[in-house]
Structures are given as C-alpha cells and as structure tokens.
Write a structure and sequence with these properties.
Blueprint lengths: L1 H29 L6 E5 L3 E3 L2 E9 L2 E2 L5 E4 L4 E3 L3 E4 L3 E9 L2 E2 L3 E6 L3 E5 L3 E7 L4 H11 L3 H4 L2 E7 L7 H9 L7 E4 L3 E4 L8 H14 L4 E10 L2 E10 L5 E9 L2 E2 L8 E2 L2 E5 L6 E2 L8 E10 L9 E10 L5 E10 L3 E2 L3 E3 L2
Parallel strand pairs: 2-10, 12-13
Antiparallel strand pairs: 1-3, 3-4, 3-7, 5-6, 5-8, 8-9, 8-10, 11-27, 12-14, 14-15, 16-17, 16-26, 17-23, 18-21, 18-22, 18-24, 19-20, 24-25
Length: about 350
C-alpha cells in the first residue's frame, strides 16, 4: 500500500507541474500582443466628394471579403468595401473580423465650393450695460444685419457697472480708456462710441466686415473641441497658420439667453462675458510661427453655479502682428461648451 500511495502522490505532483507549466505558457502568450487587424483606405481626403475603397488585412492576408466595415460616424455598414459621398465632413471607419476590431481610419471630404481661404470672422467686443438705453438701440442696429453679415461676428459683451459685470471686463474697459457705453471695439483695431451718425449704426457695423476682409484678410483658421467634466469646462483650440509671423491667442467664456430683471433695457442678454482664460488682449504664441502649420492650445475654466453650461460658449480669437507693430485680431471661432467646431473656409462664388 505504501508503494501505491507514493506512486499516486508522484502522479498528482506530475499532473500539477504539467498544469502549472501550461498556465505559465498561456500567461506568456497573453503578455504579447497578437496579430493586428489593419484597415486601410485608398485615400484620406476627397475634394468635392467621390469614392473610397477599403482593404482589411490580417496576418498579411487580405480578408476584406470576410470583414465587416462600418462607418462609425453614421453607424451604417459599408457595402462591397466601397464608400461614396458628396457631403463635406470628417468620417471615421472601422472593420471587424473574427471577433477582432481594426484601427480607425479617417476620411475628410471637402466641399468643392470652398477655397483655401479661411472664412474671416470679426471680433466685436461690446462695452455695454443692462441699464443703458443707447446700448439697446445699438443692439437693434446689429439685428438689422442679414444673417450672412451677422454670422461674421464673434461677439463678446463686456458689461460695465451692472449685475453682469465681471472684473476682467471692467478692467479692460478702464485700460482702453473707455468712459461711456455703448462703445464697440472691432478686432482691437477700430472703435465706435454711442449710436447714430459718426457712431454705431447698421452701416458702420457692415463696414467693419468689408474693411477687415480687405485690409487684414484671414491668414489663420481656428477649430476647437470642448468637453464638460463636472463643473470644469475644457477646450482644445487648434490654429492653422498660413503665414509666418508673431501671433497672440485669447480665449474667453460667454453666456447666452440671460433673462432681464426689473426695468432692464432688453428682454434677453447674449454673449455676456463670464470669464477670461487668457489676457483679453491675447497671450503671445511662443515660439513665433516660423512656417505654415498647426498648433494646439488647451484651456479650462470652472463654471459658476449660476451659469447655464448649455448656454455657455468659448470664444477663441487670434491676433497677428501687422506692419505697424500693432496686434490686430486676424480670425477666431466660437465653440459651445461640450461641442466642437471645424475650420471654416470662404465659399467660392
């Protein structure tokens, strides 16, 4: 019996060793990444639309016919590994095969009605107040603009001496020497005070678009993407520069749809400055831009409990140093909190 017991114990130990060795071998296999499923596209960009052909490879084998390719952006399946569109935008694709997922491939479709010239936005900084009657009249002039005109403007309303005033807004007004409201500043270049002849009128507002596009055409564009993390609003702004030079960037947070109280002059106040994430006259971009290309900038701000994040948006604007050494706003963009905005280009007539 003793011999049988020892033999049994020996057999159990051998089995355990074999099992352990097998486990260790499996663990070693798991520590190494296996073969990858690779999705590739015939092109990464389309001008004016067209077709893209996809290929799926696994272990150097073409498995396109057996794989499922999905347009992640729309949620639809790509048929016969070929996708066709004429709708501008950026689309993402991914393939699935034998329980595996591939890399994500992006395809950008650009409208053939666009040029390579960035859409020129004009920064309008309003120095205003809720109690100011002429400010309400100035706003009515702005509302007389056609949509294609008013959309040119990035608006920041820096309130002075009222319940919507923030220190950074009143400090900017004091630094610039403004003593009255309304005072409207365009691109930190031209200033109009009061309403009527020689001041703020629908015509003078329109003229700012024309002069900005003729004297300081856009040589940069801005795209941005924002997220809301609890009470912290974050944004990554990417600037594409078409010219070398000295630039500055600014980012502020504004809020829309603030309802009037008591006898205030307008039923709703929009584009109200809530916070500045940089100097409102811009922070220098360093090092200076030596060649065409992109740079990204990250900003964040804690939202006050009294602000409605759904009505808040970031205004990003970029200054360029001109020949007279003055920094003029060259372009910018507005991005909702939790949203995103892409580069915008001028349409070809």
């Amino acid at each position: 019996m003793k011999w049988h017991f020892n033999f049994f114990r020996f057999a159990v130990m051998c089995a355990a060793f074999v099992a352990l060795a097998g486990f260790m071998a499996c663990s070693d296999d798991d520590s190494e990444s296996g073969p990858e499923l690779v999705l590739s596209a015939s092109t990464s960009s389309l001008a004016g639309g067209g077709s893209v052909t996809f290929t799926v490879a696994f272990e150097d084998r073409d498995v396109t016919a057996e794989a499922v390719i999905k347009n992640v952006t729309s949620g639809s399946e790509v048929q016969n590994a070929t996708w066709t569109t004429n709708v501008a935008g950026t689309y993402e694709f991914q393939a699935a095969y034998d329980g595996m997922l591939s890399n994500v491939v992006s395809v950008k479709v650009e409208s053939d009605s666009e040029s390579d010239a960035f859409y020129r936005h004009v920064l309008l900084t309003k120095f205003t107040a809720t109690w100011c009657g002429p400010c309400a009249q100035a706003q009515r002039y702005f509302e007389q603009l056609k949509p294609e005109e008013s959309e040119r403007f990035l608006v920041v309303a820096a309130h002075q001496g009222d319940r919507l005033t923030v220190p950074v807004g009143s400090a900017l007004g004091a630094k610039l020497g403004y003593q009255y409201v309304p005072t409207w500043n365009y691109d930190f270049r031209t200033v109009f005070e009061s309403v009527g002849t020689g001041g703020i009128t629908a015509t003078s507002i329109r003229n700012q678009i024309k002069s900005a596009m003729e004297e300081y055409p856009a040589v940069c564009g801005v795209k941005a993407e924002s997220e809301l993390d609890g009470q912290t609003a974050k944004i990554r702004a990417t600037v594409r520069f078409q010219q070398a030079g000295n630039y500055k960037i600014a980012c502020v947070l504004t809020e829309n749809d603030i309802q009037k109280t008591n006898n205030e002059t307008l039923p709703v106040f929009n584009h109200v400055l809530r916070a500045a994430l940089t100097n409102m006259e811009g922070d220098p971009i360093a090092p200076a831009v030596a060649e065409a290309g992109e740079r990204s900038f990250d900003f964040e701000v804690s939202l006050n409990n009294g602000w409605d994040s759904q009505n808040c948006e970031f205004v990003i604007y970029v200054f360029k140093e001109e020949e007279d050494a003055a920094f003029i706003v060259n372009n910018g963009a507005v991005c909702p909190v939790g949203g995103k905005v892409d580069y915008k280009y001028e349409s070809v007539e």
